[in-house]
Amino acid sequence: RQQFSLLENIQMSRFSASFLRDINEHLGVPSEPPIDIQFQPSGYLFLASPESAAELEANVQLQRAEGAQVVLLSPTQLKEKFPWINTEDVAVASYGLEDEGWFDPWILLNAFRRKATSLGVQNCCGEVRAFVTSANDVIPSEPESARIKYVHIYMRDSLEYQPVACSIVVNAAGAWAGKLLEAEGLPGELCQPPLPIQPRKRYVFSWHCPDGPGLSCPLLVDTSGAYFRRDGIAGNYLGGMSPPEDEEPDPSDLSVDHGYFQEHVWPRLARRVPCFESLRVRGAWAGYYDYNTFDQNGVLGAHPRLENLFVAGGFSGHGLQHAPAAGRALAELVVHGRFESLDLHRLGWARLGQGEPLREGGLV
Ligand SMILES: Cc1cc2nc3c(=O)[nH]c(=O)nc-3n(C[C@H](O)[C@H](O)[C@H](O)COP(=O)(O)OP(=O)(O)OC[C@H]3O[C@@H](n4cnc5c(N)ncnc54)[C@H](O)[C@@H]3O)c2cc1C
Questions:
Q1: What residues are paired with 93 via a beta bridge?
Q2: What is the pLDDT of residues 200-223, one digit of tens each?
Q3: By CB atoms within 10 Å of each CB, which of 113, 156, 350, 356 scores lowest?
């Protein structure tokens, strides 16, 4: 989607959309089949209450200034375009006309992997559990910075680890990126401030509703925070809602609380789309948001004290669409020592130390 409020997030979306449009130029491998990420074009439709209308309108201005094709709809226009929506308490809506939709993340991941392998990258699949740094070499041992010399990688079903010497380390461990920086061998005093990224469980529910919105259904984000979209063309839909901070579910496993749909999500959906009153739940699953508890935006850049460590994580529910831009930006930092395509320095570590969160108003 193109609809964010933070300039960097909009720019990353624009970059990624363009990258995905030309994906075969970027990631195609001669003699291999072309990549089809199964992109389903469909606008996002954000609904705003009277209290949040001004903010939504300001966001759209910024998105348009960056080249995004987003329109504002009055309640009357909204009702004309999507007659199945109950527009009660909606002051204004924003709707994306281009470069929005959904695609298959697994295909994208494998396309990146296949391209990297074709260019000579060697994959080693295991878990990093410990680090060896230059801090251990220094006497007295209270250095102000250090380099990571080795990571210890544990292969699956093996008690032995493989020490891998490294000149550059990129922590892109998703929801576990924060935990990784607490691993054995990293001097605690050099890992301040901690990386505030943790797993937060999010449910996705799937339902059938033959009388539902149908083919014209966008990805709708309600004033209540509940969202849904069409899933195929056979009357199926999927959606969910992030819980309030004080009602976060226990993230220790990926079990689904089906009552959450019944009590919290369904009533909101049915209020906004009355035909959903008769929906039939088909299934549900859970996954982990790579949740940045500081400001729910990605952390991208060089670590302040571990000289050869870079981080790209904490994208908190919008990391898939920003992955091509984040990868490009990080590669530029590593190779050229500066951002070239997009200036993403505000997403760096400095804001964590300075206690200056970046606010994103378009979180789902
Ligand atoms: C329900 C749900 C819906 C979402 N919807 C969207 C959406 O609509 N749009 C969007 O853009 N994003 C969405 N996201 C978020 C998106 O999936 C993430 O932001 C994105 O996958 C993060 O990518 P990543 O590469 O940083 O981390 P990941 O994809 O999580 O990859 C991290 C990898 O690091 C590995 N790892 C962890 N620890 C270690 C270790 N110690 N050693 C070695 N490897 C390790 C993990 O096994 C994993 O393979 C959604 C997430 C969820 C859960």
A1: 47, 73
A2: 999 999 999 999 999 999 999 999
A3: 156
Mean pLDDT for 14-21 is 98
Within 10 angstroms of residue 279's Cβ, the number of other Cβ atoms is: 23
Domains and CATH numbers, the chain: 1-121 (3.30.9), 124-196+294-354 (3.50.50.60)
Measured by CA distance, the residue closest to atom 38 of ligand 1 is 173
Contact 272, 212 (CB under 8 A): no
Question: Which residue type sits at 20?
Answer: L
Ligand 1 atom closest to the CA of 312, numbered from 1: 26
Contact 227, 220 (CB under 8 A): yes
Report the interhelical angle of 7-21 vs 53-65 (nearest 10°): 50
Pocket test for ligand 1, best of 12, 148, 153, 320 (most atoms within 8 A of CB): 320
Q: For ligand 1, atom 24, name the residue with the nearest CA.
A: 174
- Amino acid 141: pLDDT: 64
